[in-house]
Amino acid sequence: MPARVHAILVARPDARLPAASHLRRTLTALGAQTRPVERITLILCGADTALRAAAAEHPDIEIITAPAQTRYADALRLADSTLDGEAVWLLAQDTVPSARALAVLADALDRAPSVAVAAPKLVRLDDPARIVSLGQSMTRGGRAVELAADEFDQGQHDGADDVLGADVRGILIRRDAWAALGGLDPALAGADEGLDLGVRAHLAGGRVSMVPAARIAVAGDGVAGLRRGRDARTHRTYAARRAQLQRRLAYASPLALPFLWLLVLPTAVWRTAVLLVAKTPSGLLPEWGASVVAFVRVDSIARARARIRRSRSVPWALLAPLRLTPAQARHRLDGESEGPVVGHPRTDLRFFSGGGAWAVLAALILSVAMFPALLAWRSLAGGALQPLSSTVSRLWADAAYGLRPLGLHEIAPADPFSAVVAVIGSVLPTDPSRALVVLWLLALPLAVLGGWFAMTRITDRPLLRISGGVAWALAPPFLAALSQGRPTAVILHLLLPWLLFAAAVAHRSWSAAGGASLLLVASLACAPSLAPAFAVLWVLAVVLTAVLRPAGTTRVVWTIVPAVVFAVPLVWRQLRTSSPWALVADPGVPWAGPQVGDSVHGRFLLATGFPTTDPGGWGLLLHELGLGTSTWWVPVLVLPVAVFAVLAPFTRRRLVGVILLVVAALGIGTAIAAVGIAAASVDGQVVRVWAGSGLSLAWAGGLGAALLTLDAGLVGSVPDSTRARRLRALRGAGALVMVAAILVVAVPQLTAHLRGVSSVTEGAPSTLPAYVAAAGRGDPDTGTLVIAPLGSDRLGTTVVWGESETIGGQSTVWSTRTRLSESDRLIATLSTDLVSSAVDKSRATDPVRALAAQGIGYVLLERPADESAQPLALSSTTVMNQRAGMDAVGEVSGGTLWRITETVTARAEPGMPVDALSRGIALAEIIVVAAALLLAVPTAESLRRTRREPRIVGLPAPSKGGVR
Hints:
This protein is an alpha+beta fold.
């Protein structure tokens, strides 16, 4: 065996546990070796008095001091000038070798002169039966892989011999090899130091031999290696990636090196997507930190390559047998997920066998029967409905910051709802407006589908799931929105169950958190008035997750990030130019449709779940049947839902019951507050916020709570085998009574279209005449001044760009403005001059030429809806027929059309600052959506992990002999 062994021990007091106690234990273990250590050098990093006191207990050791932040590789370098003997033993304050460790390590060097490094078996100090490290290898891409780690030591790996590398802690290396190799690479940041040393030893003609009989216990909090513990996870990830990049560039051939170096940052972009798909976003900052450092620290790469060049004597090909093959790498890196964290098994979904598919099919048949005309329509009109842009590019252009399609030269951020409209229209790129027709036709089955899946988080009983899906599709606010033509409310109602489905388990997985974040963006885009309610629920979710399942807190926090990113541009603009109440205005076409008023009776109807003064439409139906108009009994029909819902906190899943009631209360509170807010206006008429959006949230919470009561049963109601049948019968009867009552409420609105009382009608491809629409289809900068006579002395004016007014082209910035802009005043003045027979001598500007100078090529005078506006419409027509520079096209579908024959100036471009801001906003939104999508995409690992937890949330801990 080697004549002399020099032990280098490094201690640094920056661990979570007192370093002095570990140092004493290590020094004691060194003194108890059966093969004595001839010389010990202790390198103290920092002026820690406890460490110095522990070292003073052993006066025979040599002490070298170093700064407190000195890394292991640099500390070992301080002892190079004092080395003697034939072997160097590398230790740290938390390494406790067994009594025979040095003897068997030295014997391995003595028996095989070709062995340059002898490595021990590392085990946990607090659990010696568990292996920490027993050899290392790497993949072809340079990723380090432990050959045996975190396994119970049953001697299964004790036959290991030659390895590519080993953990640096406790290795015994020949002194001449240590000198020739140049020690450890300090650029590795504490990771893979032993692996890199082993690779260089092999290239120098030596071997790395595992000696399992040499056992060293490690605490994992010393200066050598990477520390264990949740608080050190980010550092471990950074160090591992930094070491991998450093080794990849150090080992690369000279021809490949420039390309690999240039690909460091692009690779980080790719790995960002990979990390998001793998549901490990915590690795993003370490990835970019390591990549930037590797890209900048060219000097460390040059030094590492120089060390290899000086000591290398064999080709790289000789290392191939010690590397992992792709199959071996997949086997070792793709481990199984952790076991189940809950004691309840995950039940089958049973969408088909449980009747869910049949319920959706029945809803589809009912929808076709109730809305047969939609099968032939190409576009919808009425209420808040308008066509969509005819091309996908125009749809997405309307969703971007810049010039708005309405108004003269209004530059503003688009409503997030425009992006939702663009997504829907892109489903049928050849005819986007028909996509909205299809959505209306499929609304009922989609609502049943969403409601059914949302109920899978509450119950696994098929009858209750079907009841929940059907009741959700028949909810009064949803049917009212379908009948009145409110696309924002319809889309919101379809999104809410999926949002609750994903958000309920967002704390469990990144897939659910990513999906919930996107659904939250879309839901808030449809109903900004729900933002306060969602904010309360988000805070509640963060607090509960932090208390009950801290590991999922980051996932829950993420769910709100995309919504904030999308909201910032509009919020910033509205706070600067309008009242804060403008932030809750409904997007889309501003329409003052019928809904309850801000009165005691209105609040009562809202509290019972009805958004209109005629609950469920029964008043109109009874009037048509000649049976009067008394509807006092209609709110009574929702009593079964209310009774079952209020009992939810008294079930065995009381926490879930309380949360669902909070959801319902927030929804009702939002609805009551909404009817008192008039944030928008159109043609001089105020438009109140639609209360049905809040009621949709309330129905989600109320139905969920009611079905929870039916599923879980009250506390103390656990039945024996005899009473179980009675309970099932009562559960089924309660669900059927609840659904039957809601179905009665829904009859008038389900038949509204067949009875001809629905606001939804077939729409034209454009709100402008076909003559203008054809020109606007080819040139989206075609401007049309639309003048609407509103009374005997009032005009409403709008400038429409392109082929039509569209849903996606609407903007709450325009509909909620409280002050006239310069453009508004200019258009108002020019419109007044255009239709006025009196000539104002003080203004020499010809209104026709002024309109042409603003890019407006057409003027449309709409037919007055009010008889009192007829004289004004006739006089305006007469005046404009006599205007020079205008040719009368004639009567068209929407009114009377004129074409301006003056030279029309092209619409002014917004300019570089606006373009740059538009691209910046779009880039930020694309990045956050891409991140959420990548998180939402399930992987094999995330699916395995999901299957280990129950689908239902809030299940109590399984009790002995208990019956669910």
